[in-house]
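User: My collaborator and I are trying to settle a disagreement about how two of our proteins should look. Neither of us wants to argue from intuition anymore, so we agreed to look at predicted structures for both before our next call. Could you fold the first one, then the second, and keep them clearly separated?

Assistant: That sounds like a sensible way to settle it. I'll keep them separate. The first protein:
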Amino acid sequence: MTFKLKLARGCKVLNQTEDGITVIEKGPGILTHPNQGRSISAKVRNTCLLNNDYNYDGEFYEISDKAKLYLTHRLDSPTSGIIITTTRKDLAQEIKSKFKRKEIEKTYHAIVSVPERLKPGPWNDLLEEKRVDGKLRVFPGKGVLSKSICFIERNPNKIHRLALIKLHPKTGRTHQLRVQTSCRKMPIVGDKTYGDFSMNRKIIKTTQVERLCLHASAISFRINKRKILIESNLPVEFEKLLSLP
């Protein structure tokens, strides 16, 4: 089943398959779904993935009287990239189970500020969630073991010291990649919570790029013995930053 979706600005459909999978590329600043417990005004709808009613219990958007679009996972609002959805409830449950069993390979790309040196390789950190002034924050040093692998894709430019890295999270903790890069003194550009705020201001002044430079660039998994690989091009802002001296 294929159909036209009322997507938010900056979002687009990458692919729709015959077995009911719809791959959406989410833009930065867009909610995967509206926050529960808040009134959903027209303004809020415009910042959500789809401009349709959302069912929190079933985790689906109501596309029409007969069609539902189920979410299988989420991305933080500031993060752009791939989201897998499906019109089939059974397939949504199967893909969610694969995420829980860590049978889905996720790839992210990020632009990081590197004042000292890059620190690639496997990252294993204890991360703890806390509420600070009513907002969820994550701190290293205690908590649950969080694992990622980091690869250098492009070395830092000489003056601005911005580099492109590829990240494979092996666990799915809240804000995991943002905290793991930050605690290694290579914060993601544009991160308003864990980033280098002085660097962020300089980047905005120089390039007008204000977004979090973290992008979910690829997902791969198997369905019915068929391997599915989904890829998303890097945002244009990334190349703009990497072209700086």
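The second protein, kept apart from the first:
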Amino acid sequence: MLILGGTTEATQLATQAAKIPSLEVISSLAGRTQQPINPTGTVRSGGFGGVEGLVHYLQDQQIDLLIDATHPFAAQISWNAATAVDRVSIPRLSIVRPAWESEPHWIEVESNEAAAAILPNLAQRIFLTIGRQELSTFAHLTDLWFLMRMIDPPKTVIPPGEVLLARAPFSVEQERAWMQHYQIQAIVSKNSGGDATVSKLIAARELNLPVVMVQRPPMPDGKTVSDVELALLWINQHL
């Protein structure tokens, strides 16, 4: 079984699935984090080389089941996986954590570009919590100041401000302290869902700060579950 991972759910699933007799579990990580938390079992890192590369990998490794437990914003690998499993005729399951529910102080946008477009009229000091991959989208906003939180240092051009290297989860107290210390006036977040980073939304609500929330990209159709326990049931049904 191949798990497309990089999330808490993927790590938890690998640990539990490794206990299933006669099931070999391989976890694949994108390789973007310098010091990832490696799951139980065999781990590979790096891209597959598009749909064709993934098809060859599934065939070469004789994969019988594929679990897509990637981040809700990792759309490209999810679409590639959907196409590849159709080509090799194996079952695919997606673990999709529930999105956070909208709140009155949110401004919901479709993309990082849309978020960047509204910031000049919203705030001067912004907490940017979208990771490091898309920071360049905000680099042209040189009249604003950003606190940019991520796990590893950025490799692209970034907007003015300060980089904060930290790994979730964070407490509400931590988030509130950062927002107050840096005099944050607005937050930009992806609607990733889950518990690891929800504290920033609670702190923002308490401080009455606007949240620019980037909505999830479209994903391929297919069987989905919301948690690891349901994924384990699906696996056992397909063995």
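Some points you might bring to the call about the second protein. Residues 2-97+218-237 form a domain with the Rossmann fold fold (CATH 3.40.50.720). The radius of gyration is 19 Å.
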